[in-house]
Design brief:
The protein has 281 residues and is an alpha/beta fold. 41% of the residues lie in helices and 22% in strands.
């Protein structure tokens, strides 16, 4: 199993520059095809407007979105023309209410989606929507790229931390990260305060390590206490101590609405991670 088709949705030059660079390096490393979708969002809201003005507003919004998508596509083609890889660039205009469905359709046939970190300076609801549409609508794993990093994406990840809590989401992420884990030099399976009522309480992490071993992956289990306010803080500190270059984790074990209001490990990691994250739902 390998990642042979990579996908990237571009919505902004500044926001997506790091992700585009990472995507082309990953594509060369995996001898993969890179599909880049340049999105211009039509901001027109279809609500009652003064007579005669509705058509003008709609046409103006669509024209601006088309121009933006074409500008992004021109920038991407210029960035990739000497990259030495197979790629395709497509510009698309998407109505505000159709963003999720469009991105899901565009990226559904890829093996790995590369995405920009959706929270931080210059980022907003558009980047969040693009990532979540790929995460929930494609079934593919998502590699989230932080804006600044010393990671060399042209080489395999060497030291990988896997967040394991026995959930379906974490298991999905591990399954979809197998090509990366097989190429890594070190894999740490981390559990933070594992549940005492778990069927695996006598050997936390043992079953997942057996599965990984059968794929040629030697992993070590670390059981951590929640000594910091958030689970994400514990994970980040462990990854830093291990000099990791990737964290693999499940995404949105709770509903998106709940995490948006109350917080959660997924939201916290997407907001503050300084390492790339490979996520799946």
């Amino acid at each position: 199993m390998a990642y042979k088709t990579l996908s990237l949705v571009v919505t902004d030059k500044d926001v997506d520059a790091a992700a585009l660079d990472a995507a082309q390096r990953l594509a060369r490393q995996n001898d993969a095809h890179l599909d880049v979708y340049c999105i211009g969002v039509d901001p027109a809201r279809y609500e009652p407007l003064p007579a005669g003005s509705a058509m003008i507003v709609m046409e103006s919004g669509a024209a601006e979105a088309h121009e933006r998508a074409e500008e992004l596509a021109k920038w991407v083609r210029s960035s990739l023309k000497n990259a030495g890889l197979a790629f395709a660039v497509q510009s698309s205009v998407v109505p505000n209410l159709g963003l999720d469905g469009m991105i899901s359709r565009l990226s559904r046939y890829c093996d790995l989606v590369v995405a920009s970190q959706p929270y931080g300076d210059g980022r907003g609801p558009l980047q969040v929507s693009a990532l979540e549409a790929s995460l929930f609508g494609t079934g593919a794993p998502i590699l989230v790229i932080p804006p600044t990093s010393d990671i060399d994406y042209s080489a395999p990840f060497e030291r990988v931390v896997v967040a394991w809590n026995e959930s379906d989401e974490a298991f999905a992420a591990i399954r979809k990260a197998l090509p990366i884990l097989q190429a890594a030099d070190r894999v740490d399976v981390v559990m933070v305060d594992p549940p005492s009522h778990s069927p695996e309480r006598s050997d936390p992490g043992g079953a997942i390590c057996v599965m990984l071993a059968r794929h040629g992956i030697k992993a070590e289990v670390s059981i951590l206490s929640r000594t910091l306010p958030r689970v994400s803080d514990v994970m980040a500190r462990f990854a830093s101590d291990r000099d990791a270059d990737l964290i693999v984790m499940g995404a949105y074990g709770h509903s998106r609405m709940r995490e948006a209001i109350l917080g959660g490990a997924t939201r916290d990691m997407l907001e503050g991670a300084e390492l790339p994250l490979l996520m799946a739902h």
